[in-house]
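Data availability excerpt. The first of two example chains:
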Amino acid sequence: MSELQPNTPVQYLKGVGPHIAQLLNKKSVYTAWDMLFYLPVKYVDRRKIHNSHTLPIDKAQTYLGEVQKISQHRLGRTKRKVLEITLSDESGQVKISFFKFNESYLRKKYAPGTKVLAFGDVKAYRGFKSMVHPEMDVWDEDHQDDVAKIVPFYSLTEGLYQRTIRRIFEKNLEDLLGVVVDDPLSVRDEGSVQISLSDAFRNVHSPVADSRIDEFNEQRSPYHQRIIYDEFFYLQLGLISKRYKQSQKKAFEIKSSKTLYGKALGLLPFKLTSHQEEALQEIENDFATGVAMNRMLQGDVGSGKTIVAFLSSLMAIESGYQVALMAPTEILAEQHFKNLFSYEEELGIRIELLKGSVKAAQRKRILYDLEQGVVNLLIGTHALLTEDVIFRDLGFVIIDEQHRFGVEQRAQLKNKTKYKQGDISPHLLFMSATPIPRSLSMCVYGDLQLSLIKERPKGRKPITTKVFREKQRNKMYTLIQQELQKGRQAYFVYPLVEESEKLDLKNATLMHQELEKAFPDFKVGLVHGKMKAADKESVMTEYKAGEISILVATTVVEVGVDVPNSTIMVIEHAERFGLAQLHQLRGRVGRGSEQSFCFLMASYAQSEESRFRLKVMEDTNDGFVIAEEDLKLRGPGEFLGTKQSGVPDFRLAQLVKDGHLLKAAKKRAEIILEQDPELQDPKHQKLKAIMMERWGKRLDLSLV
């Protein structure tokens, strides 16, 4: 066979072939490189060998004995056959049973007098210690280390066996290590493991005799740590390289007298928090550099990110540029429009809303005025990405809930200005209401500058959160009644729209009727994702106007609904929601100066994890604390909840557990790129090649 390449199909490895390759494909193993990363999920220590006397019962153990006899018989009165091998040593006997077997093969391999090492669960049976279907190897005094060792166990699929996988590695490991491009020592941080990547893979698949089993099972062995470090390093190299390239991109220099800005500040019904002021100063500094801003504005629900984005957009408008604000849903886009439109007349600017449901004539007028430069701020959904949307001078792009948009969509919006001046790019501000733990932030937003808003606007009180059981429903209703009588409003959120036979969950349609009976003196409205846009908008308008006291909803209220008079959020079947979603929903209340409440109605049948989630919600209002716990529970992919989120696919690295290696890898990548930002030095060519191969497409490194 010719020399293996990283992308050599797995079926061409020794002992694989088309059938086993198909089974490996089910485990996402397609190439030689994938096979290397088909890492053991656990390790079993077979180095301690027992005789029949010391062999513990009810544990997986290793036993060495000599075949005394091998026989086949029927099991009781059934037709089922069992093959029994009796092993003996100086202290007694152990019975080995096989219910599925190739008799001639076993009789030939384990003839009487053969010494055998057996590994399996030990049980007591009819006065003997026994094992059923153990793993067995013929004992060879000269090659003890080949059988009495730490044995790797791999994740399997039907038809794939541990012995098969181990044989593949026995035959191919050294060839597979040939596809590893060992990076120069400069990659490795002084504090990290000073071993080569190929040695790391060799020992992870075939641990050396004196290895510590606990380190291997917890992925703390020097070899596991080296692979984890490698995964983090090339991602950080790519992200920091991308940030450097973006810092070389020219943008429109925005320097305003801040007349509009000052006027808008005077119109605000509140004073900015210190974190909001800091974020605005950072954005203003970026605007003045003439280099394209790529900044993430991250803040908890209700922390005031939108007003920061709006005030910064006024600087761009006053400098003669247009601004685009893109949101993922029509409800959120409408919310932004209604909140900001109230300032249009007094500031003397033109704000428009573009969404899929806009009438043709109105759309045509908006697009014409946009291209003429008359529209200063255009707010919209994905509708902003259609070909006919062209700005005259787009200088500033704001993307809300940015993880809901793909890289390509963000790039599309950047290029929508009519009069491009060479390779000049608009400034970019991303907003996220999902507090992201620092470790995840370094991996997802490592190419962006970060502005954090952690303070809540002054005058807002922490939301009181309480878990209720079904038998306490009337008590909860009494508390709600008291709030409604004060003129306040409430949300009831449900996970389903209509009744499901499979899931016994409260559903919005049915509960709307029940709540009308429970609160006869108050108007109850219903809104869900299956309603027509016009009907949904009508209900939301009534609710915002205070005409509806109780709004029954599915999770469409998760983002974009801002009603300061709402002081109660009831989440039915709260155990069904993730931490991030619970926190987002809770954030729909507590937006005024009155005390607000979040009631989590939970069923009795709860897992330990769901009880933990609800306890976290009761204990804290801090979105960043909640995010850390959520990341631990769900991992990064599910944490952000979308494949377009840009969460890296790590084969071994775990952000929460391996944060120390992430920091070390980031530090090393920064040092290398400080010395050689373009990685042009011959000694860094190999690094650049590996970085481009692994992350070039995912991070759009060639397009930066």
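And the second chain:
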Amino acid sequence: MINIHKKTLKDLEFSTVLQQVSDHCVTALGKAKALEIAPYDKKETLLISLQLTHEYVSSFYNDNRIPNHGFDPITKELQLLNIENTYLETHSLKKLVSISLTVNDILKFLKKFEEYYPNLQRYTSHIEVTTDIIEQVDAIVDRFGDIKDNASPLLHELRQGINKLKGKINSSFSTALNTYHNLEYLDDIRESVVENKRVLAVKAMYRRKVKGAIMGGSKTGSIVYIEPEATLQHSRELNNLEYEESEEVVRILKELTNYIRPFLPLLQNYQSFLTTMDVISAKAKYAKSMDAILPEITEEREMYLRDAYHPLLYLTNLEKKEKTFPQTIALKDDSRIIVISGPNAGGKSITLKTVGLLQVMLQSGMLIPVHERSKACLFDRILSDIGDNQSIENHLSTYSYRLKQMNYFLKKCNKNTLFLIDEFGTGSDPELGGALAETFLEVFYDRKAFGIITTHYSNLKLLANEKEHMINANMLFDERSLEPKYKLALGQAGSSFTFEVAQKNGIPYNLINKAKKKIERSKVRFDATIAKLQKERSKLEKTGESLKQNEKKKLAEADKLEAINEKIQKKLESYQELYDSNQRLIYLGQKVNDLSEKYFNNKRKRELMAELFKLVQIENSKRKKVSVKEKRVQKAKSTQIKKEVEKKVNVIRKKKKEERKKKKEKPVQPKPVLKVGDRVRMEDGRAVGSIDKIEKNKAIVNYGLFTTNVSVEQLELVETKK
């Protein structure tokens, strides 16, 4: 039997989560039901609820979207059906048709796609699909919400009579209107409508001359509204027929309501089902808004929340476009209690609340924002002591209230309990409060309860180190800037950085030293040791990260070098082949050259032919016989290689051609006019000299040690004569 205290739900701000879920509902009944969501007391119903929400979320990501479940509440209609001799109006009947159609659509859809939504289909299998209500109402009520003329023979007859009388009334009124208009008894407006009847607008002075019933007059008294005598008789008959018609309509509606009355339990089921579907849909939409999933629910006592987000914080930051830091927390039999320490504003309380809220949400049938590899188990009881616990109503101090809470914890805590305590042991003398807190923690430990506490007390950190199944954890802080990293590190206690934070906030150094002297030297050393260890851990993490990055770079470079090496090896092989081939050709060339020289000297043709034939035979013996097919393949390969080479050469030629074209297109700047005394140099030279004389496009340039006669066009200006 699962039981989670209301105080825990309040501490974890569960009501805010419910309000956010309620906002995703599309019906009034759904919104109200979402606000009543509470942790399930039975494991079986909880697992079904989780599966239903999980399946609904999956419908957002496939082509088979679950049909719309929106409906108008039929609570009043159900109440009327429960009372004998009552009848439903046409708009109420249309609501019943609408809700029946909606339910039928969803039920048929779930049956068709049972493979996709097995749990939803199983959950709805007890609800009956019926078209009786729809058919009966559609036979009597039209799409505008009026009773059809053929709803009964009597109604048909009455409405025909009404239509005939209305025709007679209009005809007789038109005759009277024309008559009195010609006599000039009527005002300019001629006619009006009073009490839903057409009346003549008669000038007040002629009211006695017009026969009929006076129905009223204008505000000024200049006009009197009269219903002509000719239409009066027809109007009375019409009133009688309309009364009979309304009586017949009521009779028909009563008959139809009596037909529907036996379907009351089914209609109650319909409304209840659609309300539940609205809540399931809202849970699914809420899950989608934060990428929540259904983690693995394990039978073993084990919780592993990887990359867990606090739902409220995540959604708030998402709106503000700010980053939310996830936490990874593991609780199991060999590490069932975590003691989180570290400075304030580092995220200890948020981490504690994240675990508690996610567990409560999960046990209320809601999906949670964690990594898909996460695991969760179910607890029979979740106890919490978080936030400001001063009770004004009961005249209790914070510490008294906390002691009362601890007493409740001691009564209820067992191996199936998850306890969450923020700032454990505070509110009293640090030494005494710490000692009492240590005793309580030992009791919870002995009872094999799971839990997370946050504290600044050194004795609780030491206890976590001493106990086998209890571990320390700390919220990481940057040792230089003293800014929180909002990251939980398991396995080591955290320093409160009390003096460091005080120094950062401008507290004089001499006062900090005095404070250090006032407390036990051992405690300062212990806190300093923890701070040092934390700094070392932070450094190690940074070093580890940089090593990983370097390793990645080295691997990438090694792969690159290997690829280059492979390319070079291939080139070397091809060059070696080319070299061997060329060497063989040189050797053959030399042999032929020797033979030709020998022939040149002795002119022995036969000897030359014999030597050449011998040389050819030796070379042919080295060759392998190649079939016609292989020759074709080799030829095709060589052709392909030739084409590729030509293609590359063409690309290079094209690029060079474009470059030359661009160079030509560039505007040629006019060469400066050179004068005697200007410092110049040759276009392709470095030595600088001065012009002594210019004559017939030739310049005599003085380089100091020597002079030279050069064409002016070959010279570049370095500096003009000042």
